[in-house]
Design brief:
About 35% of the residues lie in helices and about 20% in strands. The chain has a seven-stranded parallel sheet with strand order 13-14-12-15-16-11-17, with helices on both faces. Strands 18-28-27-19-26-25 form a six-stranded parallel sheet, sandwiched between helices. The longest helix is centred in the last third of the chain and has 19 residues. Strand 31 and strand 32 form a beta hairpin. By secondary structure, it is α/β, with parallel strands linked by helices.
């Protein structure tokens, strides 16, 4: 009798054994195929066959129900990657399965195409005269007028001259129109009911199959060619190479030439980016050169499209290049030759929740090693770990110190806002120095980018009489005010609370916003520069893929003058007409309770600064701070990366942090605070018996209650010389012992390996 061990898409450790029913030959099932298996009394799941054998287990075995595939949907190297992620990050392999595969491949009914509601202008209004008549009719309804003018702008119907549009008409989704105009569904419905707009269903998430190349790779200049040659030389002896090139040094063109070389050798390329926003610009560049050899894969694509890409990658004609965010590491690659990880320093490559809490950079390097491929890490601001690996010879290292065409690096202007505040010269969050530079840039037909690392309108509201501050009922955080939606929102669990008219504590009306989010910055900029076209790029305005693309394309084409954003705008975006970048509050980045705070602040400021002056002139960066003498500010001003890095490494070595030690965070969650406290103390005590002073805590994290669950954190600082396999076995065993206690039946314990 034959048996098959399978991986279930459940948070369970290890494999599960089923028997093959009579009539089903062992060679019918190959590792990597999907099979339907029973679980419990009534449920069935689509599992992945791991291996077939004839060893009868010492328990009753049930038959598999059905074999789904004729060919494996998981390649051997993918299976090995799953197993490595599960082992290294101490996550059940079932969780890896859940994260890796599109939902449509884990369900019996397969997948269905997805449609979205789109909005269009009725045919009778598609001319300049009819549009003016329509707007005259709507002039009595300001909210409807705002929605209509927003629609005309983003669809480009506002460029009509007679019956001919000045720019190609763009389709507009219903969701995008609501987000862009900040309107309610009832206002939009009124326009539809009156016949001024029409709604239609549009199938989305289908693969582009007609992308013919329209360009060839640009010829590399002398500096780029030298870097390209050095990368190839380094790759002869090293599996991983770090390309450390200043912002706008032309790294992307080097990537394109490396990709072209791989394609000529018949190899595939995986190109990872940290943010979906970056794929918008990068897709256009790669599409022009490589056409339909390029596939895109990230979470903003529909599940149907992700299933189709997965299937295409298993076909005889797979994409030669996959461009995507971290989930692209899980796709099937039949002949992987090169992995490019752009902006390798970015925290976005680390998956936080849910499990598996893997780092895509590490997983991609491991996959490349398994496939015999090379990895190129590219960045202007290397992570401490990657730079250390390069400097100690583990990675190859190539440096580019000049911008493309010798464009000067941006000039960093430090603005001491403490002095301006003392003299009461600040206009909200804006110094007169920054506003003057913005005004000059707009007069010169240049563009401006403003960086504020908080979304929402105000970070919180407070009663000026009694000090009452509204907090989330589920999490230990103050609620963030979102003015356009008229609500206070928790950014951890999504809880919302209507902005009150009076203080529920004392009954007074004097409720004031405290702090600035991107929404409030946008509001003030509209007042200061009423004629400017302004866009905001944060999580609230980029819910859909089309919204990302619209914001970036409009700014790139010059249809907007000022772009306000969170760290989304720091990540490698390329705009040629930006002459001024404003960093509104650098100090907020320095005071995070994290040993990486200075490193992340340095990277973020350098990256957003690099958006300025990328094409024709030297850009100007205005860094507003109350502490001009701060080490990060000084390092950026002086361009002293090496000195900053060496000082940071000395601190890391002294206090036992990466890259000299490994870090594992242990989180314990329970709905009762006393149970979380007791469990944290007991878990730490158990671990100290085996690991001694390497165990720190338990402590409360900065946010100690999320979604009603009280959290305690234990920190492990571990020498790299420790046996990793034995350590992980020990930690899992100690966790399992804790959970056998009935007192902790509802306790959750999980590990975060190499937290970012």
């Amino acid at each position: 009798m034959s048996f098959v061990d399978v991986i279930l898409p459940l948070p369970l450790e290890g494999m599960f054994t089923y028997s093959l029913p009579d009539g089903l030959m062992p060679d019918t099932i190959v590792p990597g195929m999907r099979v339907i298996v029973p679980v419990g009394k009534t449920k069935t799941y689509i599992a992945i066959a791991h291996h077939v054998h004839d060893i009868k287990p010492p328990f009753e075995v049930r038959n598999i129900v059905e074999v789904v595939d004729k060919q494996p949907v998981l390649l051997p190297q993918q299976m090995r990657l799953w197993e490595w992620i599960a082992k290294y990050y101490m996550s059940p392999i079932g969780e890896v399965y859940k994260a890796a595969m599109p939902s449509g491949m884990k369900e019996r009914d397969g997948y269905k195409s997805r449609t979205e509601k789109y909005v269009m202008l009725p045919e009778k209004y598609r001319n300049e005269r009819a549009i003016h008549v329509m707007l005259d009719i709507l002039s009595r309804y300001p909210k409807q007028t705002k929605v209509m003018t927003t629609f005309l702008y983003i669809s480009h119907y506002d460029t009509m001259e007679g019956d001919i549009p000045g720019e190609p008409i763009s389709e507009v989704s219903r969701e995008e129109l609501i987000n862009e105009s900040h309107c309610t569904t009832s206002v939009l419905k009124s326009l539809i009911d009156k016949g001024f707009l029409q709604v239609y269903d549009r199938e989305v998430g289908r693969l582009n199959i007609n992308m013919e190349p329209t360009d060839i790779p640009h010829r590399l200049n002398e500096i780029q060619q030298d870097a390209y040659n050095k990368i190839l030389m380094e790759m002869y002896g090293k599996n991983v190479v770090l390309l450390h090139g200043v912002t706008s040094s032309g790294k992307t063109e080097i990537y394109i030439h490396l990709i072209e070389k791989m394609l000529k050798e018949g190899k595939q390329v995986m190109y990872l980016l940290p943010e979906i926003a970056l794929t918008v610009q990068m897709t256009d560049r790669l599409k022009r050169v490589f056409g339909n050899k390029l596939g895109i894969y990230h979470s903003k694509y529909s599940d149907a499209e992700r299933v189709e890409i997965w299937q295409k990658q298993l076909s005889r004609n797979p994409y030669k290049i996959i461009l995507g965010a971290r989930s692209a590491v899980f796709l099937p690659y039949q002949d992987l030759g090169l992995v490019i990880i752009d902006e390798e320093h970015e925290q976005s490559f680390k998956q936080q929740d849910p499990m598996p809490r893997y780092h895509a950079r590490s997983a991609a390097i491991m996959l490349a090693t398994m496939c015999g491929a090379k990895t190129l890490l590219g960045t202007a601001t290397p992570s401490a770990e990657s730079y250390h690996n390069a400097k100690t010879g583990k990675y190859g290292y190539v440096r580019i110190e000049k911008r493309y065409k010798d464009i000067l690096m941006p000039q960093i202007n430090i603005v001491d806002i403490k002095d301006f505040q003392r003299r009461k010269m600040m206009n909200g969050v804006f110094s007169p120095t920054l506003l003057g530079a913005m005004r000059q840039a707009l007069d010169d037909k240049q563009q401006v980018m403003l960086f504020q690392n908080r979304r929402g309108f105000s970070l919180m509201i407070e009663c000026h009489t009694c000090g009452w501050v509204p907090h989330c009922t589920n999490c230990d955080v103050a609620l963030t005010m979102h003015k356009t939606m008229g609500v206070l929102t928790c950014h951890y669990c999504g809880y919302t609370y209507r902005v009150p008219d009076t203080c529920p504590s004392c009954g007074e009306h004097d409720l004031r916003g405290r702090g600035y989010g991107t929404e409030k910055v946008e509001d003030q900029i509209m007042d200061i520069f009423p004629k400017a076209r302004i866009a905001r790029m944060d999580l609230d305005t980029t819910r859909s893929r089309s919204a990302y693309e619209r914001i970036i394309n409009d700014f790139s084409a010059g249809r907007t003058n000022i772009l306000i954003g969170t760290q989304m705008i720091t990540k490698g975006l390329d705009f040629g007409n930006v002459s001024v970048v404003g960093i509104l509050n650098a100090d907020s980045m320095f005071n995070m309770p994290d040993f990486r705070a200075f490193e992340h602040a340095y990277m973020m400021i350098q990256q957003v600064s690099g958006r300025a002056g990328r094409k024709h002139r030297q850009g100007q960066v205005y860094l507003q701070t109350k502490n001009p003498a701060h080490p990060v500010v000084q390092a950026i001003t002086n361009g002293a990366f090496e000195t900053f890095f060496e000082e940071m490494m000395e601190e890391r070595r002294t206090f036992c942090y990466p890259p000299f030690y490994n870090i594992i965070n242990i989180f314990l969650r329970h709905s009762k605070e006393d149970v979380a406290n007791t469990a944290g103390i007991e878990m730490a005590s158990r671990l100290r018996q085996g690991l001694g002073s390497r165990v720190l805590g338990p402590d409360k994290p900065p946010v100690a209650r999320i979604k009603g669950m009280h959290i305690r954190k234990i920190l492990l600082k571990l020498e790299k010389s420790l046996n990793a396999t034995q350590l992980r076995q020990y930690l899992i065993a100690e966790r399992d012992k804790m959970l056998t206690n009935k007192q902790y039946a509802a306790l959750m314990i999980y590990y975060d390996v190499d937290p970012s």
